[in-house]
Write a structure and sequence with these properties.
Distance between the termini: 44 Å
Shape: elongated
Number of strands: 0
Strand content: under 5%
Largest sheet: none
Number of helices: 15
Helix content: 55-70%
Order of helices and strands: HHHHHHHHHHHHHHH
Length: 248
């Protein structure tokens, strides 16, 4: 959290703003769409007292559709609030915000949201099912992209800076990470079908996340485990190194 502040605000700005705001003053700032980012960020930092349900919704709403510093501070603050406001994370509004936050363009936010998902085991079934749906939709988009470009399964240096391609791979990477954190063994067949596709991706980070899930689901298909263990990339094969014994 401090790194975000250091990049955006001076020590003088921080000291001038940092004072004891009342609960109502903090919430009024967060509810006012015309307030500047600086006030909103430090209002979120100063949130420490009991939040009502509506005020928690106002707070978590800043996880999306706001500037990057606001989204990032919100994501970090959410990690602090899990034990205090566990029930509020189960609200439909909160769950959908977290799902959207998983694939934020800022990886720090994605990582923080995945940490939150990991600490909410009571929501594993919800997240697993919803993430599977989102991955399925994303893979359909990727299939269309692949038909038009043919570069997702070939190490094509010319296309490594392709924004459309990288955006899809980025989303898939973080959905796979969040899926691994919410496994229930209730949808292993659906997950296996996903992994059959993602294990073939040229991008090793996708294969690594695939192998990580393979290592954690029950009765993972032997051919997929073998494919992961035979992978040329160390980080991929390392995920399943102790799952099967065979000569590579």
């Amino acid at each position: 959290m401090d790194n975000v502040l250091n990049l955006v605000y001076t020590k003088e700005q921080y000291e001038n703003f940092y004072n004891d705001f009342s609960y109502d003053e903090i919430m009024n700032i967060l509810k006012d769409d015309t307030e500047d980012d600086f006030k909103k960020i430090f209002s979120i930092i100063n949130l420490s007292c009991f939040l009502s349900e509506n005020d928690f919704i106002c707070f978590i709403n800043h996880l999306t559709n706001h500037s990057t510093p606001i989204r990032e501070i919100t994501a970090y603050k959410l990690e602090e609030f899990i034990d205090k406001y566990n029930d509020y994370f189960c609200l439909d509004f909160s769950k959908n915000k977290l799902l959207d936050g998983i694939i934020d363009i800022n990886p720090n936010i994605s990582r923080a949201v995945c940490n939150v998902v990991n600490k909410l085991p009571e929501l594993n079934s919800f997240f697993e099912e919803e993430i599977i749906k989102r991955i399925d939709d994303l893979l359909k988009e990727i299939d269309i992209y692949q038909q038009n470009t043919g570069d997702l399964f070939v190490d094509n240096k010319k296309n490594r800076k392709n924004h459309a391609k990288n955006k899809k791979l980025f989303a898939l990477y973080w959905y796979l990470e969040a899926l691994n954190m919410s496994l229930t063994n209730e949808n292993d067949e659906k997950i296996t079908e996903i992994l059959k596709k993602t294990i073939k991706f040229c991008d090793y980070t996708i294969r690594e996340k695939t192998a990580k899930i393979l290592a954690n689901i029950d009765n993972a298909p032997l051919e997929l485990l073998q494919s992961a263990k035979s992978d040329q990339n160390f980080y991929v094969k390392n995920q399943v190194y102790d799952k099967i014994n065979f000569e590579d």
